[in-house]
Amino acid sequence: MSALDPFYAMLRGESDPFRHHPEHLRELQLAAMKERFAERREQIRLLRRRADDVGVAEVARHEDMVPLLFAHQIYKSYPESFIDNGRWKHLSAWLQTLSSKRVAEVDLDGVDNVDAWMDRLRVAGHHVFSSSGTSGKCSFISQTQADQDHVTESCVKLGVYGNAMIRRDVGERPVFLMMPPGGAHRHIEPVLSAAQRLGAQTTLMFDEPVLASATISMGRMRRAIADGSAKPSEVAAFQEQAVARQRHTGKMIDRFLDKLTAQREVPVLVQGNWSLHWTLVERARQRGIADGICHPDTVITTGGGLKGTSAPADYREQIVRFYGIRPENVQNSYGMSEMIGTGPWSEVAQGYAICPWIVPFVLDKAGEQLLNPSDGVGVVEGRFAFFDLLAEGYWGGFITGDKVVVDFSPAGDTDGLQGPLIRQVGRYADLEEGEDKLSCAGTMESYVRGMINV
Prior knowledge:
This protein is an alpha/beta fold. It folds into 2 domains: 219 residues, no CATH class; 189 residues, 3-Layer(aba) Sandwich (Rossmann fold), CATH 3.40.50. 39% of the residues lie in helices and 14% in strands. It contains 15 helices and 14 strands. The strands form 3 sheets. A 7-stranded mixed β-sheet has the order 5-4-6-7-8-9-10, with helices on both faces. Strands 1, 11, 12, 13 and 14 form a 5-stranded mixed β-sheet that branches. A two-stranded antiparallel sheet has the order 2-3. The two termini are 42 Å apart. Keywords: Plasmid.
């Protein structure tokens, strides 16, 4: 029997994973981390190199895992020249240092851009996903089909057990998704699959896939404009494209809004992050559409921050009024693309739940010291890190850029939620602390450069 079996059972079972934890969960998690490390250190070269350098032969305590957690920046540690010059075999060699499955045998003949590279890997069973790459450089993480299936199942669990009204009407509500029909982001396919299980017919906001190559090109151009290296003709072309893109996006949002308002007589499910919900509010007001556009039993799911979108301090309250729903009809959640499963927010408990297969670590700002209470009791503030026990294609240990407050022993009415609660979330890069620096990031990137001989 594998130490991971209880966690697969919680993901795939019929019970609420946020409210029905097995006894001695902390001990079960530690046993599963020990098993994962023993397996993955033989498969992931960067992990093996790191473990050897810091002298960790096995994970016997939570503290042993801290130096083995990867900084989130490591997944964009490849030289940009690999993409600029079409060195796809080199990019695959870089990916191999971070992957548990072999990628060396993938046929790359005829690949002419990064999306074609990702498509070719997908055909070979490596479901690579990328980050937004707003800075001009994407993160790439290799996952398996099992990882994709796990994400889909976790989305269903969040929908069913994160909101009682979704659970009441499973399979009946029209679903409105503020997302494209495909693309490089991890959650597109799983959310589309989950929506088919949670609701009735699905309406998408966007009609074009999100391509990594387009995102990279846009981010680099913004960077070139900011540092003054862009040519006037390049700036003019970029601005012209931006106007055309904005015009087309406006048409897509209008079409989505029209279809949504046409369903005001029935409860629907609307999914999107906070920034997209706010974008819809602004568009409706530009068109003179009054608040209260939906049936009062409509549920909206959301998460994340504003992602650079400008909005007033009370934007969440305004969004609730716009849809014409009650605050409890909002299913807010906390998670990230590197994590299988996000935790729902509970107004009663005043915190985000954490999936039982996600082991939370609170570190100091540098990402070096574990701040978790040794006895499992207390409230801790620091940098959020985690180990995802269900990750298959990659190492599940991540150090994030988030500053959090975690209550490891919540008291009072917890809405039935078990385990630690995340009380507050912020981004170090957005706070007074300044830049988001991790002491281990430079060391890990030097490992990668040595492994791919660049």
